[in-house]
């Protein structure tokens, strides 16, 4: 088996552990497990007509119902700093992570603001809420 070589782009510090490097490299930006679970639940409950990573809306929502102007972001608890989980900062490179997380949260706020200005209703679903939030989300989305 050949060893996979990770190309560094300079945006993140080099991890001290190869295991950490592998784990961080495996993180996906779209079609994450929570997104897929939510989309399957939407489909199973008859909520069709959504678009994934909708490019025509500001911030490219993870799930969008363009006709109803509903945008859903499925935020990972680690990357977007879930207010429910209150995860600690990673132990190494804390200055980098603090800056990174603050930039993520700022970008999230900007996306919500831009969508709101264009008349979109925005829902933020946290990764940890997916099993709990499905029914209340369906109730909100199906109101006329």
SSE layout and pairing:
Elements (H helix, E strand, L loop, with lengths): L17 H8 L7 H12 L6 E2 L10 E3 L4 E6 L1 H4 L13 H24 L3 E6 L3 H13 L2
Parallel strand pairs: 3-4
Antiparallel strand pairs: 1-2, 2-3
CATH architecture: 3-Layer(aba) Sandwich
Number of domain modules: 1
Strand content: 5-15%
Residue share in helix: 40-55%
Are there runs of 5+ residues with pLDDT below 50, and where?
none
Main sheet overview: 4 strands, mixed
Name the shape in a single word.
globular
SSE sequence, one letter per element: HHEEEHHEH
Q: Roughly how many Å apart are the termini?
A: 56 Å
Spatial arrangement of strands, main beta sheet: 1-2-3-4
Identify the CATH class: Alpha Beta
Tell how many strands the DSSP assignment holds: 4
Molecular structure report:
With 144 residues, the protein is α+β, with helices and mostly antiparallel strands. The protein has a single domain (29-142), classed as VSR Endonuclease (Endonuclease, Chain A, 3-Layer(aba) Sandwich), CATH 3.40.960. 42% of the residues lie in helices and 12% in strands. The protein contains five helices and four strands; from the N terminus they run H-H-E-E-E-H-H-E-H. The chain has a four-stranded mixed sheet with strand order 1-2-3-4, sandwiched between helices. It is globular. It starts with 17 loop residues before the first helix and ends with a helix.
């Amino acid at each position: 088996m050949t060893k996979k070589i990770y190309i560094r782009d300079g945006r993140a510090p080099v991890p001290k552990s190869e295991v950490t490097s592998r784990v961080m490299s495996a993180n996906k930006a779209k079609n994450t497990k929570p997104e897929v679970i939510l989309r399957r639940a939407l489909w199973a409950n008859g909520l069709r007509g959504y678009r994934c990573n909708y490019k025509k809306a500001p911030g490219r929502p993870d799930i969008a119902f363009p006709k109803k102007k509903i945008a859903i972001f499925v935020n990972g608890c680690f990357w977007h700093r879930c207010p429910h989980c209150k995860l600690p900062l990673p132990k190494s490179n804390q200055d980098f992570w603090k800056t990174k997380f603050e930039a993520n949260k700022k970008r999230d706020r900007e996306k919500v603001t831009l969508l709101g200005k264009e008349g979109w209703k925005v829902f933020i679903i946290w990764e940890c809420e997916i099993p709990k939030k499905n029914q209340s989300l369906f109730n909100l989305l199906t109101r006329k």
